Amino acid sequence: MEFDVLIIGGGAAGLFCAIESSRRGRRTLLIEHGPRVGRKIIISGGGRCNFTNLGTAPENFISENPHFCRSALARYTPDDFVKLVRKHRIEYYEKKLGQLFCRDSSRRIVDMLLAECERAGVTVNVGCSVTRISKDRRFRVETKQGSYLADNVVIATGGLSFPKIGASPFGYQIARQFGIEQVPTRPSLVALVRPKGEARSELAGISVDAEVTADGHTFRENILFTHRGMSGPAILQASNYWHKESPLHLDLMPELDVKDLLNSASGRAVQVSNFLTGYLPARFVETLPEKALLGRRLNSLSDREIDRVSEMLHDWHVKFVDTEGYGRAEVTLGGVSTKELSSQTMESRKVPGLYFIGEVVDVTGWLGGYNFQWAWASGFAAGNAV
Ligand SMILES: Cc1cc2nc3c(=O)[nH]c(=O)nc-3n(C[C@H](O)[C@H](O)[C@H](O)COP(=O)(O)OP(=O)(O)OC[C@H]3O[C@@H](n4cnc5c(N)ncnc54)[C@H](O)[C@@H]3O)c2cc1C
Hints:
This protein has about 375 residues and is α+β, with helices and mostly antiparallel strands. It has helices spanning about 10-25, 40-45, 70-75, 80-85, 105-120, 170-175, 235-240, 260-265, 270-275, 280-285, 290-295, 305-315, 370-385, and strands spanning about 1-10, 30, 50-55, 60, 90-95, 100, 125, 130-135, 140-145, 145-155, 180-190, 190-195, 205-215, 215-225, 230, 250, 315-320, 320-325, 330-335, 355, 365.
């Protein structure tokens, strides 16, 4: 069978691209190897899909070329997606910091995308595995359900995270097959693992409001202690910028000036650790370093010792040795190099007619709806070019 456009991967980016391409009159086939499309959308945002972020800007993305995402994000904005959500009468709310979530269920977003696919006339094949792609004048895509000819092929197979719901390295393999450069991948928006002996499993479940800094980027949200290290939104955000060799810097009392606080209470005979439990969970205070100092009374501390306590709480250096891996990561950093693609259309510079969109590209967003906005925007760009 022949199509103008064949899209591989029925996730956020692939579905959106299919809608735009078909709406423009292109005969469009969407191929998904899983039993259903949009499975990541369904589990996203705790089942409520944080489908966009009103404050989306290029600065919220990580890529070897931080400017690459600019054009696509400008041409399809969070407001555009909100209009579509409204048109389908999907109720949503802003949780915090511009993050929009479905009020009811993320399933509504998948239903909306499928309804738009149907209206535009997209052919959707699920449970269909591609075995080979070759290019002569046109692309020949061989699948377990037969082979297809297409003028354009769009790779929308996402990253490596959450393999249990369909993630595969297919997109990277196709890039390699066609000699397209890639940026090394690694799991991100993911919990981090501390060195053996330094993880405090007794703290698992405790959460602290903190400011976490990695590679010059600071995030103020909760951190959550886990059996092997730390998680929570502030750590997930920082994981995008974390490098094995450099510790994260944690300010555990970002709202307060610990030095002022200790100075103003310096006449009291209360133990430093007891005093701190007024601000931090007691179980956590028990595990802080500088045990000797924390056991002393406030009125016995010298100025230098107050400085040391302040530094420990405002600039705690925490080393991590690993991430919890692709099985737990929300996204994959790296991917198809942006040097290889047109930022206007997502088309390969080397292989005309071959496009890469969504997470398979080396563009990764922060936590908070940015990754879906990239999927919609890059899908829109390609859908309007094919
Ligand atoms: C648990 C979790 C929660 C998340 N929550 C949010 C959130 O609330 N907000 C947000 O912005 N981002 C969130 N993300 C990230 C977001 O889901 C992804 O960035 C986004 O889905 C990427 O879209 P995509 O279309 O590029 O890839 P995907 O959505 O992963 O879609 C890729 C599709 O391709 C299919 N596929 C793979 N290989 C093949 C193959 N060989 N042949 C055919 N089909 C194939 C897969 O089955 C899949 O359906 C979350 C991620 C996870 C894992």
